[in-house]
Amino acid sequence: MEDAERPPPLRITPTVRALSSALRGKRENVPDSRRGNGDRICPEPDKLWFKESSAKNLRSRDFLSPTTMLNTMYADGQVPPAVMSRLMSLRGSGVLPIAGGEVMGEGLRVRVDRAAAFRAVLPDGATEYLKPSSTKQGCVVLNCPALHPKANIPSPDALTLGQLRTVLLADHMGALLKRQGFAVSYCPTLPEDSDIVAFLRDLGINWPTAPAAWTNEEREEKIQAALENSPYKERETERGRRPSGGGGRKADEGENEEVLRVNLKRVFQEEGLQGYDPSLGTCTVHRDSVSHLAQLDLATVDCSVVTATALHVTSCQDEFRQQQIAMLWRASGATHVQKHLVCGPVKTPGSHLTAAQYLQLRRGQMKEASEMKYGDQIEGQTWDDIIRVMTSATVRFELLSTVHTSPVTLDVQREGSVSTKGPRGGVFVMYNCARLHTLFDSYERGVEKGLYPEIPEGSQLDFTALKEEGEWLLLFNYLIPFSELLDQSGQALEGDSGGARVNIRTEQICKFLVSLSKDFSSYYNRVHVLGEPLPHLFNQMFCRLYLLRALRELYHSALDTLTLPPIRQL
Fold this sequence. Notes:
It is a single chain. The chain is an alpha/beta fold. 44% of the residues lie in helices and 13% in strands. It has helices at 2-5, 12-24, 55-58, 67-73, 81-88, 114-121, 161-179, 195-202, 217-228, 264-270, 287-299, 319-331, 355-374, 381-400, 425-448, 469-479, 482-494, 508-526, 535-560, and strands at residues 29-31, 39-41, 50-51, 63-66, 98-104, 107-112, 139-143, 183-187, 190-191, 209-210, 233-239, 256-263, 282-284, 309-315, 337-343, 346-347, 408-409. The strands form six sheets. The chain has a four-stranded antiparallel sheet with strand order 3-4-6-5. A hairpin with a 2-residue loop joins strand 5 and strand 6. This is DALR anticodon-binding domain-containing protein 3.
């Protein structure tokens, strides 16, 4: 009953929609006195308001409807009193409480009732703000072509940095989609004792495995038969000799050897599939292609829906080959939706490193940087684990913080080092997450010594004490919007991209965490959270601890989508 009576979480999008509705009223067109009988066309709702995010602008407003927008709706941009009244009395599911508004030179400013927002978000630990705002259904197969065997099982020494980027991206997408409720499977299944599996585990990636002796021959035979009987096949014969060796008999000079070819262009043209390369043409079916298709077929076995979505996460160098595989799968009778998430190249000016060499370089630099900062403490299993996680964080942020279609340029000069200071990447994020854990450890020690009382229930606190500008910035820019950020990957996958490629803003979580860390670090360096143990200061301290406890959980939730465990000490 208590959950049923709890108000819905505050959201940015419903607030912007409510503000737009209040500003537009019921009219689509507003009479323009300067045009006689002409009508003033009302702008699109999503363009009427802007959420502010900079510390400077948040000092005076939280949402702004620019003067240019007001001028398109009202004569001389004058907002009628009735409209202002609607704005000030705004209510609705998930709508932030409005405290006031005024028309100034830049437009119509609206301020949120910040104390009310803190009261709505923090007392329950902000749990509803750390998960997607809606639950999705469906099955997604994340296919990583870089991990499929060609002649042999892929190895870390043969894996390129561009291919490593696709593996990390597939892992990140899987974690995001699972959070939204999708059933996610990964392709291909790898031999459990292989070097590539050990390498991935070193990066914190838990890819599906099977015993070394396992084979997928039954499915391969099924796929081969389906292609043999496909309406898109083109049979040809080649004259020549079979290769000798391997126990095979030697063919006569005139014996015919049958080759299976499939017309891929017919597949996407006749089935109305958009965005495929018109030069795909006719493809010869080789054994590794059949193995790839059989792995895809295996990955869909546990799907609870008839039609799954296969997301092929591939490098731009391998995109053409993956389009061939996708159309071969279609030709074999597979009706699953297929999308291609294509990654730009990874450049290392002046060097050429494999994925294994790159990871080894970053691990060595991380250990060196840690030894310079912490000295002889850097020994034992605990520090080995810390360095491993910090190295994994560095690699992820270097390869995932850029828009996936754009190239990534890495500095891999061996004389360089990974800095443990400064607002850059994974190390900076993990360091600030550890600062939050250290803060709460200090508070608990203070409680044990009798300096501070236990944190009271949130309902007993006066959140008007949170007046420092950094406190509102952390709530308004990070805690409240996070759930809508989590929604975006699923929305992009479900939307109609109008082609084979899908563009998902996969860089957003990394950028979100770096920005959060900059603003938290600035706040933490400026504000003394654990103040003097004086009763009249406890309310403000506890309000701040509620905020920072929610922030700590926000870090955990965001890092979990990157399959990174939090660092609790540094």
